[in-house]
Structures are given as C-alpha cells and as structure tokens.
Amino acid sequence: MTVLTTLFPVFFMLLLGLVSHIKGWVTVNQKNGANSIIFKILFPVLVFNLMANANIELSHISIILYVYIAYLVILVIGKFIT
Q1: What is the reported pTM?
Q2: Which residues contact 64 (CB under 8 A, 6 or more apart)?
Q3: N-terminal to C-terminal alpha carbon distance within the chain
C-alpha cells in the first residue's frame, strides 16, 4: 500500500498534464515559462535544501571524496582527449 501512496501523486500529475495538453488549457508559452521556473529556480532550491538537511556520517566522507576525485580525473582526461 505504501507504493501506491507514493506513486499515486506522480501518476496523477502526469495524467493532469496530459489532460491539460489535450484540452489546450496550457499554451506553449506557459509550458516554457513553467519549465524555466522549475529547472532554473525550484529544482536547485530543492537540491540545496536536501543537501543542507542531509545527515552525513564520517564513513560517507570517504565515498564523497572518492566520487569527487574520480569526477575530477575524468574531467581532466576529457579535456585532454578533446
């Protein structure tokens, strides 16, 4: 039952978006404006809020550093390849 209570809002919003597109309730300009607000403002705020409230244990620090160092190595290799 927990799965249904978690996934229902997601599928409801998808269905609502589909119906609003079919009925023409949302124009292309409104959709582009909403996408701009969501991806440029709301999503970064959500990510920052999740990172600010995260409980990071000492054992997680080594994994975070490993991923960060691997990212930097791949970035440098990519710069040399291109």
Answers
A1: 0.54
A2: 56
A3: 50
